[in-house]
Every structure is written in structure tokens, then in C-alpha cells.
Amino acid sequence: MAIGEIVLGSFLQVLFDRLTSLGLEYAQREGINTALLDKWKGMLETINVVLEDAEDKQLGGNHLVKLWLDDVRDLAYDMEDLLDEFVIEATQVKSGAESSASRDQNLNSWKFFSWGQDGSSGSNLNSCSFETKVQEISGRLENIVTRKAHLTLRENAMDISNYTNKRLPSTSLSETRFFGREKEEAELLELLIGEVGNSDAGLSIVPIVGMGDVGKTAMAQRLYNDPKMNSYFERKAWVCVSDVFDVLDITKTILQSITGLPCEGNDLNRLQVKLKDDLSGKKFLVVLDDVWNEKYGEWTSLLKPFEVGAKGSKIIITTHNHPVVSITGASPYPLKELSVDNCTNLLAYHALEARNFERHSHLEIVGKKIAEKCRGLPLAAKISGGLLRNKENPDEWEDILNNKIWDVASAKNDEVLPALKLSYVHLPSYLKRCFTYCAIFPKDYEFERDELVLLWMAVGFLDGRKAKENILRSGRKYFDELVSRSFLQQSSVDTSKFVMHDLLNDLAKSIADVTCFTFEESQVVSDEDDASFKEKARYASFVSEYFTSKSLRVYVGMKVLRSLMLLTIQSDHYRKKKIFPERCCTTC
After folding, report:
1. Could you say which DSSP state residue 301 is in?
2. Distance between CA atoms of 588 and 586, rounded to whole angstroms?
3. What is the pLDDT of residues 345-396, one digit of tens each?
4. Residue 15, Cβ neighbours under 10 Å: how many?
5. Is there a contact between 207 and 325 (Cβ–Cβ < 8 Å)?
6. Which of 54, 99, 199, 587 has the most CB atoms within 10 Å of its CB?
7. Percent of the chain that is helix, strand, coil (3-state, to 5)
8. Domains in the chain, ordered, with CATH?
9. Which of 141, 125, 5 minimizes the C-alpha distance to 79?
């Protein structure tokens, strides 16, 4: 769960900004003490300073930390709900819409801020409901702070490397078999060594961009080892950059690859001067794999020694993010998912050491179904094939198909989507909640940009202090940033709409957990899951061909539900499912 964003973005910001603007002004005029609010703020700040480390440990599989974060999440939502009640009454009082008698009654709800530091009431509080809720929240806050001390959480320090170590560092050695990238490989070779790539500039950059696990590194490896590249470039170097963009370490690795000698010392100037001398007048190729850095100053610092290379020198970078590309000033080369046929062949190779299923026809149907579930991601097909290595019993293949090995919530298959999880970790906090909200959409749902932005506005994810047109502009900016980071992608069917890749949809659902609930009429929900969703679900959607009161019974009892979206299914003549939003999409 994007806990840091939930507590900061949707609670602290709302609690203190909205409460101050609507409530505190009136409370101060009436002489009401705000000691309890200050106490809450202090406890929340104590929680906040360890949230990044807690989220990191949760993603790494720490169960106790996950339970603690779940409680923080639930508390944040419940405090928002209490705040909403408070703001409604505060607004009514401020607007003078109530009668004098009801106004006096409603003023009692303000008095919970006159309580002492111990939570005891210092006045005759008539609103038992508010009193009970405030006491409950105070107790839960204190419990969370107490439990925090036993989890050894560090303040303001998320060590992403602890999590990203699950992704093996890349090497320049290419895969023994390469499927379905012939067109892309030819186009990139032309950019690197053909006339298209031979600009007047001494150095040019070729960014390969795409979502996690789509095969960017494999493509770079293929190009790096192509015999044509060996004859064209005089010097070559490969660096796996990953999440830590250390100019000194990258420079050392490149220099060592170029010279074949170990590089000692930490004098960046000396190392860059040496690298500049070795590259001067030479045509070189450098691959920077898995780049996340968006800081222009660090990028320009790294590039200083490369400007002396001969015309035709190239740097290949692979990245998930278009913002990374923008700092290079180069045009991105997008790498899309594999076709189903190529995914099927890749699966066959890793499972059966065959280029296709011609000699294993009894496995072809189930094999293609597994390949379809991989949704064009080579790594998913490769790992699926590895699980089926030399297994020719159709039942074993059916087990893999039905066990959903690509499900990010499955601990034993955690390696399938490390890059996608890493992408989420690297999201700015203000985008995490917007992305996670998309868990309410079923797979293959196509949406327009403003449709999603308006939903974000309706559920309060955007800054409510801005004018309406500014909120809309901010939401569009958030949407475009999620697209640029490959979390959302343009539909191949209707270019005016967007979709989430299935595996990113799975990731969003995994992060959202029980707070987002998507239900299809044919779906069966266990009693345990039903109880969890009824108690915790905040955002929900229902997918059906038609709606009746009976079909919506699953939502009865969801007392904390904030919004419900109704989506209808229609089928075209190809029997493909199309999903449309109903006009009755509502915020509760």
C-alpha cells in the first residue's frame, strides 16, 4: 500500500489544511482549545518519519510490518471520514444555513478539540458519537506509535537497494535464443551504425524505453554483441546502472571495460581525464542499462569525457521512464510487448528446448493459453517456461495455467515482476495513490484521460485548495506522468483511450489489497474475503451485463465504501468483451 502517500497526502494535508481553513478559524474565535489536534499531529509525525522504511520492509516480505502498515492505512481512512463529518458541520455553521437551535447542537461537535492531552473531556459534550470516535482514534494512534518501537524502523531512510537486489544485475552477454524482435533489432542497428544514425554530432544517444520486463535489456545485449557492432566501434563498455546513479562508480566501470585494467581510487577528476584520453578520437559504444536517474546535473557530469569521441559514437540507455529520456535530449525508441505467437515460441524454448510446439502438439493449446497470460512480457514467458522445464504431462501445464504464476501477490513467484514493483517504488508519492486507485478497473478496461482524472478529483486525490481548472490541470499532469512512466499506455484499438497492462493491473490490486474491490457477476468470493472487503473496502466497481438489486447485494454492509462504479459488458461480433462505464458511477 502507498502508505506514505495515504497518511501525508490524504490525511495530514487534508486534516491540517482543510481543518484549519474551515474549522480552526471558527474554533479559535469561540476560544476552543486545540491541544488534542496538536497531540494527534505529534503522533502522526512520529509515524510519518518511518513510513518509507516500513514500506520498503513490507515490499521485502516483512509480515509484521505489513500488519502495522495496514493499521496505519485504515486509521488514515477513518480519520478522513471523521474529518469529512466535521467539515460538513463546520461548513453548515459557517454558512448560517441552520436554525439557531440546531446550530447550538452542532457546536457540540467542535468541542472534542477542547479535550485534555489524556483525551478526557473538559466540558459537557453532548455528541456521544463524536466523543466515541475521537477517543477510539486517539487510542489507535497511541497503539500504532507503541508498536512502531518494536519494529526497528529507521527514520527517513528507505534503502531501495535491499529490495532491488531481487533483480539480478545485467551483463552484456545476450540470450541464447531471441524471439520476435527482428524488426526492432534491424531498426535499432540502423540507428546505431547506419546512415540514419550517422549525424554530424560526435556523440548521439539511443534510449530504448518500455515497461518493466518487456525485454529492453535483452535487446541491448543483442545489439551489443552483434558482429556488425564489433567491426564498427573501436571501444565498447557495458554498465548496469539500476536505481543508484553513482557517477564515480559508472565512470570506473566504463574505464575498466575500455582499458581492461582495474581502476583504483575515488578521484573522479583523475578517472574522467583518463577516460577522456582513452576515448579521444575513437568511435565507441557505451550501454547504460536500467537507468532511473532524472537529475540533469548528474547526467551532464557523467557525459563530460564522452564529447571527444569520433563521429558516430553512441550511448544506448534502457529505461522505464520518459522523464529519463527527456534529460538526454534524445528521441526514445519504444519497445512494445511480444506478440502471442512469439511469446508461445519463447515459452516452448524454455520449457521444451524447442522453437515451437510442433513436436509437442498435445501441449500446444495449454501452452498458448499460458503465453497469452504472459501478456507479451518475455520475462514472464521465460520464467513460466522454466517452471515447466522438461515437463510433458498436460496436467502439470494445466496446474501452471490455473495457478496464475504471474500474480504479484504470490510470494513463491515474486521474481516474475521485480521490475514492475521497482517501478512502483520509484513513483513520486503523489502518483502512488492515483495509480493504486486504478485497481478498481477490470482488466482490458479502456478509459479516457479526463474520465480517470475526474474520478481522482471526485475521490479527493487532487489538491482541493486549487480552483477547479487548476485541479483538472494537475490531474492531467499526473495522468501524463503515469503514461510517461509506462504505468498506463495508449490503447492499440482506440488511440483516444488508454489501458493498463494486465500485470500492472495485478500490481495495483496487490498494492491496494482490500481497499479496492472489483466484482464480476460470475465471480465467487469466499466468506473470509467477503468479510475483509465489507470491513475495509473504500473504492469498488461492479462489472455485469445488467444490474439488479440482487446482483448488488455483495456491496451491502460495506459501511466505509466511498465510491462505487458500475461497468457494463457488451460483446461485439468477435465475442470480445467490451466494458463501458455507467452513468450511475457514484461517489458515496
Report:
1. H
2. 6
3. 999 998 898 888 999 999 999 999 989 888 888 877 887 787 788 888 999 8
4. 21
5. yes
6. 54
7. 55, 10, 35
8. 3-158 (no CATH), 182-334 (3.40.50.300), 340-417 (no CATH), 427-587 (1.10.10.10)
9. 141
